[in-house]
Design goal:
The structure is a single chain. The chain is mostly helical. Helix content is 86%, strand content 0%. The longest helix is centred in the last third of the chain and has 27 residues. The two termini are 18 Å apart.
């Protein structure tokens, strides 16, 4: 997988997690543990995207 494909996949996963978070937050019985896990996953992906984009601009 090329770097561009990897970034695109991470962006897709980040957007999917954002949608999941929105749905979970709007559910009356939203589980705070599930919300925290989704946020953590989303943040890890965002950090990886930043790292990859920073590496890309340095090379």
């Amino acid at each position: 997988m090329s770097r561009i494909e990897h970034i695109a996949e991470l962006e897709r996963r980040h957007a999917d997690l954002e949608r999941q978070l929105e749905e979970t937050n709007h559910h009356p019985s939203a589980d705070s543990l599930e919300i925290a896990q989704l946020k953590r996953q989303k943040l890890l992906i965002k950090d990886e995207l930043v790292r990859l984009r920073t590496d890309e601009t340095l090379h």
